[in-house]
Amino acid sequence: MTGARSLLQAEAAECREHLFPDGGARELMAGFSAEAVRSLLHILECPSCQDATLGDLADALEARAGDPPADPVLLEEAEGLMADLLDTPAKNREQLVLQDRRFHRLDLLDLILETGEAAQARDLPKTTKHAALAVWMGEMAFRALR
Predict the structure, then answer these.
(1) For 105-116, what is each residue's pLDDT tens digit?
(2) pTM value?
């Protein structure tokens, strides 16, 4: 660890406002591939990439605002699948998702993201867990398309 990095970590440890109380940042990062981590580090350090990424995220949220309401039956199925995923130990999720096509649904990925976002103000560990799961599932879907 470099001296600058250890100094930054020491400063972050003193700033309780920005800490993930349960180590959620590490859990989030554990779900990222090495390529995703490198990309995230670049985005965090590069002002123009930050602007572009924030713009892309804002566009995505705006596009979702006009989405039609979810079918109640499909929503109930997705909620059950999300509960199954969250109840499955992280080390077993990949095998479950790869082997069971029921988990290959965009509405499930959307639900995980939305649930995590809704919990953001009151339950940061839940938000972190859902974000990590959504990023991981998105990476799995992207790899499957290649």
Answers:
(1) 888 888 888 888
(2) 0.50
